[in-house]
Write a structure and sequence with these properties.
Strand content: 5-15%
Oligomer: single chain
CATH superfamily of the largest domain: P-loop containing nucleotide triphosphate hydrolases
Strand order of the largest sheet: 6-7-5-8-9-10
Number of domains: 2
Number of strands: 10
Distance between the termini: 33 Å
Shape: elongated
Structural class: alpha/beta
């Protein structure tokens, strides 16, 4: 598919500028969103081609290409001229009309006129009768600023640039990539919770997801310490079932975590609640909080081999710089007490094999999250072996009800 080819080419051509014009988290976010969207809506892309919506378009329709001139000879008194289409490359010019429209809409957003951007799309749909186009602007609004950021970055290779020119190019490119990230991130409140045994990667995953999705991470250990007047990173190793690990204390900790999450969700924020959530009742409570706030909800279940978990626990104990009291001694008892994750719809439960290196898990998990969120919006997902087996050895698998 030409769209997939163009999108993946963009990411291949911008790897070298990570850290210069685009950060690693934004790069990961946009690549995961784009791959998930193309797989999820594969049927829609094919239907657009079959319906005649792939046409000889402009290819570079941003605001600077549109001129308005006064002309009393026409009814509205204004003549609209569009100039400088891409003539040198048919692949860039032939596209879905939604892509050209999204390019101009994105440009208006970039210039601070989101009102005109919305009006443009609305009036085009009304005049054209192309209702399916409304499913595509977000995707192309991610794609188009990415192209602009990429092109600005290409210009940085000019050795003759003055320092001021180089700085301006970097800032323009970064602004376009940031705009693309804003389009990709879910709108409104969102609740993701982690679940799994200690040392299965929940903390790392929550932090990386928070950075990429623009979500606030609420860690149970930090919430616990703050509620009890302790230093955020203070550690109090205690025996399983005693002190902080007593059933009453752990229950209270989860309730405090969900209370904090509820407060932020009601303000329209995206939240990641990081805890063991080893009891089905605690997970159900989180689901209820999300429903109360009208927020999409997703359970991220982290699984790792015992040997991997032990290695991580030993390393964490040696460093001793976070609030977690996780140790190998209570690991087996937590494992025996962990209640299986069941009862959630297929788009609300993501199983992650966290034996893999963190960057690979994060990237695949991000794509899985977007697919799950698209599913919750009521659209059919494309299926792949990794998504349907449910095997914990698969890097990313959508959990079954």
């Amino acid at each position: 598919m030409a769209v997939r080819r163009n999108v993946r080419e963009n990411f291949a051509q911008t790897r070298d500028v990570i850290g210069t014009t685009i950060s690693q988290p934004v790069y990961d976010l946009l690549r995961a969103y784009s791959d998930a969207f193309m797989r999820t809506y594969a049927d829609l892309f094919r239907a657009r081609a079959d319906g005649g919506y792939i046409r000889d378009c402009h290819g570079d329709l941003h605001a600077a290409q549109v001129f308005l001139e006064k002309d009393s000879a026409i009814p509205d008194g204004v003549r609209i001229s569009v100039i400088d289409c891409i003539e040198f490359n048919k692949r860039f010019r032939y596209s879905d009309v939604a892509s050209d429209l999204a390019f101009l809409a994105m440009g208006l957003d970039y210039l601070g006129r989101a009102d005109l951007s919305r009006a443009l799309v609305q009036h085009y749909v009304e005049l054209s009768g192309d209702g399916d186009l409304l499913k595509l602007p977000d995707f192309y609004k991610v794609y188009r600023p990415y192209v602009r950021g990429k092109v600005e970055g290409f210009r940085l290779a000019d050795a003759n640039l003055l320092s001021a020119e180089r700085k301006e190019l970097q800032e323009r490119a970064a602004r376009h990539f940031t705009l693309a990230a804003e389009y990709a991130r879910p709108e409104g409140p969102l609740l993701l919770i982690t679940t799994g045994l200690m040392a299965t990667g929940k903390i790392v995953l929550a932090r990386e997801f928070g950075e990429r999705l623009g979500a606030e991470v609420l860690a149970s250990d930090v919430v616990r310490n703050v509620a009890r007047g302790l230093a955020v990173t203070e550690r109090r190793p205690e025996a399983w079932g005693a002190g902080f690990y007593s059933e009453e204390a752990v229950e209270q900790n989860h309730q405090e975590l969900l209370s904090a999450a509820r407060e932020k969700l009601m303000k329209g924020q995206r939240v990641i609640a990081d805890a063991s959530f080893r009891k089905a009742a605690w997970r159900a409570g989180a689901h209820a909080v999300a429903n109360e706030a009208g927020a999409p909800f997703l359970v991220l279940e982290c699984r790792a081999q015992d040997a991997v978990a032990r290695q991580r626990l030993d390393a964490r104990a040696a460093i001793g710089k976070d609030a977690s009291d996780a140790r190998w001694e209570p690991y087996a008892r937590q494992k025996a007490a962990f209640e299986p994750v069941r009862g959630f719809a297929r788009g609300q439960h993501l199983v992650l094999d966290t034996n893999l290196p963190s960057p690979e898990v994060t990237q695949r998990a991000l794509e899985g999250v977007f697919k799950a969120l698209f599913r919750q919006r009521g659209h059919r997902l494309g299926r792949t072996d990794a998504e349907t087996t449910g095997d914990e050895k698969v890097p990313v698998a959508l959990g079954s009800p």
